Automatic annotation (TrEMBL):
<dbReference type="InterPro" id="IPR017853">
    <property type="entry name" value="GH"/>
</dbReference>
<keyword id="KW-0732">Signal</keyword>
<feature type="domain" description="Alpha-N-acetylglucosaminidase N-terminal">
    <location>
        <begin position="48"/>
        <end position="141"/>
    </location>
</feature>
<protein>
    <recommendedName>
        <fullName>Alpha-N-acetylglucosaminidase</fullName>
        <ecNumber>3.2.1.50</ecNumber>
    </recommendedName>
</protein>
<feature type="domain" description="Alpha-N-acetylglucosaminidase C-terminal">
    <location>
        <begin position="561"/>
        <end position="662"/>
    </location>
</feature>
<dbReference type="GO" id="GO:0051781">
    <property type="term" value="P:positive regulation of cell division"/>
</dbReference>
<dbReference type="InterPro" id="IPR007781">
    <property type="entry name" value="NAGLU"/>
</dbReference>
<feature type="domain" description="Alpha-N-acetylglucosaminidase tim-barrel">
    <location>
        <begin position="158"/>
        <end position="494"/>
    </location>
</feature>
<dbReference type="InterPro" id="IPR024240">
    <property type="entry name" value="NAGLU_N"/>
</dbReference>
<feature type="signal peptide">
    <location>
        <begin position="1"/>
        <end position="25"/>
    </location>
</feature>
<dbReference type="InterPro" id="IPR024733">
    <property type="entry name" value="NAGLU_tim-barrel"/>
</dbReference>
<dbReference type="InterPro" id="IPR024732">
    <property type="entry name" value="NAGLU_C"/>
</dbReference>
<keyword id="KW-0326">Glycosidase</keyword>
<feature type="domain" description="Alpha-N-acetylglucosaminidase C-terminal">
    <location>
        <begin position="503"/>
        <end position="536"/>
    </location>
</feature>
<dbReference type="Pfam" id="PF12971">
    <property type="entry name" value="NAGLU_N"/>
</dbReference>
<comment type="similarity">
    <text>Belongs to the glycosyl hydrolase 89 family.</text>
</comment>
<dbReference type="GO" id="GO:0009793">
    <property type="term" value="P:embryo development ending in seed dormancy"/>
</dbReference>
Length: 665
């Protein structure tokens, strides 16, 4: 049933105010105009938004009228507008949704379904679409006569982390991607990372430089480890990539990009960071290629340790960077001007000299802008947090000011916990996006910090001399904590802080289909405890399992390699010796039933049997014996292929009650 109580949440919104100087605003406006000019015509976007509706709520496909409008309708910004549609016949649409792009239309639709019809849209693994509360076509509730206009307080809503492609999307087919892109549109995301298939582009670029297939096999990572091979943390681990994989991913990327574009999104494409195959050194002996240090291996095994970095100051850097973007444009067309590049992530420049750092930054930018004269560099600001002893104000300023204003956008990656904008005079005047990182390794514990999400982006935007140009979500993995992601997504359309307590009431009504005071009270507790918390607390998740659904299908041998990739990523992650486990073991752990039953339980039993023996025999704990045993067990499990249930069994309520009784009774 529709509930008019939802309406109180829509407050009178003040229009956005920009704090940038006029020449700086002009640079951002010019960028926005260039990106707007790349979008497809209104009819294409309107149909794309209709198709989202058709997939989400087919019964109501003709209950809504969609229209692309100009920014003038929203006072020069982006917005959506919901009004009652003037019916001329009985079968006409009831609700009109206008938006500056198809993304704003989809967001307006989502807003209407949430706040007028009590619906709830989530990832399938976190509840899926709950739309039973939407009244029948013909009975949809009207909005007030003057309609509702919701502006975006900042132009961009960014989505993804460079590792999400490995932790969450690695096995997806087009069907799953299509669902995700629908979800993105409904949440208002207009600046998504589009990293799929880049190895196919690299294959061409490096083949043109006479790098052989075996050399490329040694360069790329396996499917579940691509993100770290791309960043130069490792090479060949989990590989090689088959030609089939490379070709399939390229096809997938074309489908992804064309859908993003139809919806009026601006994809963020990869660019060259200096990460090259070792063999390049033989082809270009005079090129300045250095071997990077060890990254989380057990014993620096050169089979996967220590990748090669082409120095940005080398002329070959610009050549390869330009070739990569040209190859990308050749393959996909002129789809964006925004390129991600993280050359200095977990990899400090060789000197702290600001003028040298500035020349490196300029070279990275030159490599992009030679191929795309309007290129804008999007950089994760993680280094300013993780390597803050290197990146002091002079070094930060040197990097951030190495390119013209408006040509660099920084992601304040962990702003809900460690905002950099506050301590860096707003990135020394550089435009930045306020991002929530929230999740590490795709872990599924319940936690988050709702108060910070509800107020942080607003505080940042209205602060003196703000250079904030967007909000974003940079989680390492998805499919967890839907409440956190729903609130964060709303912040793209919230000009004022959200009162979390009230918001949670409406959230729980929408999520559980009706008003239940006990559930609201439970959410009050969660708000003050696990959802006022910056790290994961072990908490019993839903019984999920390793699943092969939504997977791409390949030959059995390749399937074996993929299964090893999938199992290794969620358990040991990286390499081992006989008695030294990976430094990254359990980083990407999941409380899935198959893992609990077949992996963690035997592993824990091994530990307890060694412990028991040492106590019984009054000997010190044999650390080395125990390690050898669990490492061998883990490696064997990683290479297994047995299937696990993918459907929950048993009575979740009864089990939960029994657990509460057992531990708190
Ligand atoms: C690649 O090999 C071809 C044929 O041997 C040669 O003409 C070309 O110069 C080589 N290119 C590079 C970059 O070494
Ligand atoms: C080569 O690169 C290294 C590391 O980036 C740098 O320290 C060195 O100055 C560079 N050498 C030349 C000749 O440019
Ligand atoms: C904002 O900018 C003005 C002019 O550059 C400066 O005087 C002022 O101190 C800045 N305020 C803050 C809080 O940084
Ligand atoms: C969350 O914790 C902070 C202190 O860390 C506290 O000030 C705040 O009131 C808490 N919020 C809730 C909803 O309990
Ligand atoms: C390997 O493990 C042993 C203990 O089992 C430890 O003494 C040694 O330092 C470890 N080696 C490395 C490279 O971590
Ligand atoms: C266990 O060993 C310690 C010394 O290693 C000894 O002091 C103690 O008496 C022993 N306990 C038993 C129950 O044998």
């Amino acid at each position: 049933m529709c509930n008019l109580k939802f309406v109180f949440l829509i407050s009178i919104l003040s229009l956005p105010v920009s704090f940038l100087s006029s020449s700086e605003s002009e640079a951002i406006d010019a960028l926005l105009r260039r990106l707007d000019a790349k979008r497809p015509p209104p009819s294409v976007q309107e149909s794309a938004a209709k198709a989202v509706l058709q997939r989400l709520l087919p019964t109501h496909a003709s209950s809504f009228e969609f229209k692309i409008v100009s920014k003038d309708v929203c006072g020069g910004h982006s917005c959506f507008r919901i009004t009652n549609h003037k019916k001329s016949s009985k079968n006409d649409a009831m609700i009109m949704i206008e938006g500056v792009t198809a993304v704003e239309i989809a967001s307006g639709l989502h807003w209407y379904l949430k706040y007028w019809c009590g619906a709830h849209v989530s990832w399938d693994k976190t509840g899926g679409s709950q739309i039973a509360s939407v009244p029948k076509p013909g009975s949809l509730p009207f909005v007030s006569d003057e309609g509702v206009m919701i502006p975006r307080p900042t132009p961009w809503n960014y989505y993804q982390n460079v590792v999400t492609s490995s932790y969450s999307y690695v096995w997806w087919d087009w069907e799953r991607w299509e669902k995700e892109i629908d979800w993105m549109a409904l949440q208002g995301i207009n600046l998504p990372l589009a990293f799929t298939g880049q190895e196919a582009i690299w294959r061409r670029v490096f083949s043109d430089l006479n790098i052989s297939t075996p050399d490329l096999n040694d360069f790329f990572g396996g499917p579940a480890f691509l993100a770290w091979a791309r960043m130069g943390n490792l090479h060949a681990w989990g590989g090689p990539l088959s030609k089939n994989w490379l070709d399939q991913q390229l096809v997938l990327q074309k489908q992804i990009l064309s859908r993003m574009l139809e919806l009026g999104m601006t994809p963020v494409m990869p660019s060259f960071s200096g990460n090259v195959p070792g063999a390049l050194k033989e082809i270009f002996p005079s090129a300045n290629i250095t071997r990077l240090g060890e990254w989380n291996t057990v014993n620096a095994d050169p089979r996967w340790c220590c990748t090669f970095l082409l120095d940005p100051s080398d002329p070959l850097f610009v050549e390869i960077g330009e070739a990569f973007i040209n190859q990308q444009i050749k393959e996909y067309g002129d789809v964006t001007d925004i390129y991600n590049c993280d050359t200095f992530n977990e990899n400090s420049p060789p000197t702290k000299d600001p003028s040298y750092i500035s020349s490196l930054g300029a070279a990275v930018f030159k490599a992009m802008s030679k191929a795309d004269e309007d290129a804008v560099w999007l950089m994760q600001g993680w280094l300013f947090y993780s390597d803050s002893s290197f990146w002091k104000p002079p070094q930060m300023k040197a990097l951030l000011h190495s390119v013209p204003f408006g040509k660099l956008i920084v992601l304040d990656l962990f702003a809900e916990v460690k905002p950099i904008w506050e301590t860096s005079s707003q990135f020394y005047g550089t435009p930045y996006i306020w991002c929530m990182l929230h999740n590490f390794g795709g872990n599924i514990e319940m936690y988050g910090i709702l108060d910070a999400i509800a107020s942080g982006p607003v505080d940042a935007r209205v602060s003196a001399n703000s250079t904030m140009v967007g909000v974003g979500m940079c989680m390492e993995g998805i499919d967890q904590n839907p409440v956190v992601y729903e609130l964060m997504s709303e912040m793209a359309f919230r000009s004022d802080k959200v009162q979390v307590q009230e918001w949670l009431k409406s959230y729980s009504q929408r999520r559980y289909g009706r008003e239940v005071h006990k559930i609201e009270a439970a959410w009050e507790i969660l708000h003050g405890t696990i959802y006022n918390c910056t790290d994961g607390i072990a908490f019993l998740g839903l019984p999920l399992a390793l699943t092969r659904t939504n997977c791409l299908f390949f030959s059995s041998l390749i399937l074996l390699q993929y299964e090893w990739n999938a199992r290794t990523q969620v358990t040991m992650w990286f390499d081992t010796t006989k008695s030294n486990q990976s430094k990254l073991h359990d980083y990407a752990n999941k409380f899935w039933s198959g893992l609990l039953e077949a992996y963690y339980l035997p592993r824990a039993s091994t530990y307890f049997s060694h412990l028991l023996r040492s106590l019984e025999e009054n000997e010190s704990f044999k650390m080395d014996d125990w390690r050898q045993e669990w490492i061998a067990y883990s490696n064997k499990w990683q290479a297994g292929t047995e299937a696990y249930p993918v459907k929950a069994r048993g009575d979740a309520l009864a089990i939960s009650k029994a657990l509460v009784e057992k531990y708190f009774g």
